[in-house]
Amino acid sequence: MKGAPKGMPLPAVNSVTEPFWTGCAGHKLLVQRCKACGMHWHAPAPLCAHCQSRDYAWEESRGTGAVYSFFVAHYAVHASLKDQVPYGVVVVKLDDCGGVCITSNLLDTEPGDIRVGMRVKVAWEDMGQGITLPRFVRA
Amino acid sequence: MRDKTAIAGIGETAYTKRGGMAQSEMECACEAILKAVDDAGLKLSDVDGLCAYSGERSVLQEVAQTLGLGDLTFTNLYPGGGNSAAGVVGNAAMAVGTGTAQAVVAYRSICQGQHPRFGQARSGSGVAAANLSGLADGPRAFTQPFGQMSPAQMYAMDAQRHMHVYGTTSEQLGRIALASYANAQRNPRAVMYGRPLTMEAYLAARMIADPYRLYDCCLESDGACAVLVTTTERARDLRRQPVLIAGAAQGMEKGDGPDKMRRPEHLWTSAGMTRVAKDVYARAGITAKDVQVAQFYENFTGQVLMAIEDFGFCGRGEGGAFVASGAIDWPNGRLPINTAGGNLAEAYIHGLSLVLEGVKQMRGTSTSQVKNAEHCLVAAGPTAPPSSALILRRFR
Q1: Which of A14, A89, A100 has its CB closest to that of B146?
Q2: Share of chain A above pLDDT 70, in %
Q3: Domains of chain B, residue spans
Q4: Chain A residues lying within 8 Å of B208, measured CB to CB
Q5: How far, CA to CA in Å, does A119 sit from each of A5, A42, A98, A99?
Q6: Prediction ipTM score
Q7: At what angle do helices B301-310 and B274-284 cross, to 10 degrees?
Q8: Comparing B130-139, B181-190, B284-293, B350-359, which segment has the lowest mean pLDDT?
Q9: Domain B5-114+218-394 has what CATH class?
Q10: Domain extents for chain A?
């Protein structure tokens, strides 16, 4: 099945991750960057694991990158997925923001056509309840 | 600590397919522990320490009270899942080696037929697995909304990366499954005894999470096992030939953790066990060439392949060629692995059964005995930090 599986849990938002999800709601892909040492990281964390500084900025990514790895789910691990397999999940390595990796889905690609190295760009999907997920399409 | 402690007894229930066990997990835990104590020739009142996995539902204080153990001077939980399999024994050895306790039992009881299955959607603390309601929290907030819901899916991405970078093939991963199934055909206790596997059947099996097929994935089983650790000095006077704990190591590499996206690049194509490997060899005073047989925790075949590389049996990226050469096959391979059938074909007792098979190899009682084996490596929890390892040594 092309696209992303439906009915998946939405993310819990906390004090650390709130700016990321607010960015998504405004269709901005934000990545934390340490102001002390310049290190980038994703997923969001309360401090820089390189220098332990808590002084960080949220840098906007252009949202382009390449598939770093992926899997294709064929076995439905939950009853609600039975009519949705196969579906693909990708890890995208961003071109900017230190080349951090982000887990997502390719909305426009059959799972059997996904390949490592495929060029992609972010595409937004509003999920309701104030949550927008960063998905990707072929660039 | 080298050779100062030993495994003096082992105990195990029958192993069944998920749902095949009539006894509760607590009954299984008690049975395995009583058998391990009896195997050692000790009395239950001699046991003064317990080590368990953090996910153990037969929690150790309840086990102690249920069994009627005497005073305990050491209790310990190893964090995580299958990565605990060697670590619980290593912690028991540390307690015994420091004199904190005299006889410590490490155990695992797991009946996936009676409790939620590992291979189904994994619930975050806020997500009810039954209906996927609630919210995904922690690192899962950045994976579950996209449909990454199970261990097979998560670990498949590292295998995919290894295949991309090094050209590793499905047929090579299949050799690991075939080796385990071949060994299980000689082990009447194995769940897959009487169920041989061919490469054709391996490749034709249904995909679970591409590139992982059905036989790349560990079983879901019911059963329990236990290991009794005491000092080597005491063990030499007991019922069984002691099996020396030559070395034990545990830990995780910088940057590793449950958020797989944040790991440094090299950990995508490693089991994250190179430091554990270095430490366990150094503590035992040996190198990879001194190891004749090994038990590698199989969550999935690709993680075994990467662990074989981490432990130096071949170079980085050469794991596929190594397993395809027959090196892991009993009896003539350079390093027969998972000689009872392992998690893929004996039973999935969260890996502790691999330690028991290591003990049998060092006692000379395995159903796929490696001749003249002096050392058995047990490596637990590839790509599941903090991982752990043991070097078991034959007693002379």
Answers
A1: A89
A2: 100
A3: 5-114+218-394
A4: 74-75
A5: 21, 20, 17, 14
A6: 0.98
A7: 50
A8: B130-139
A9: alpha beta
A10: 18-138
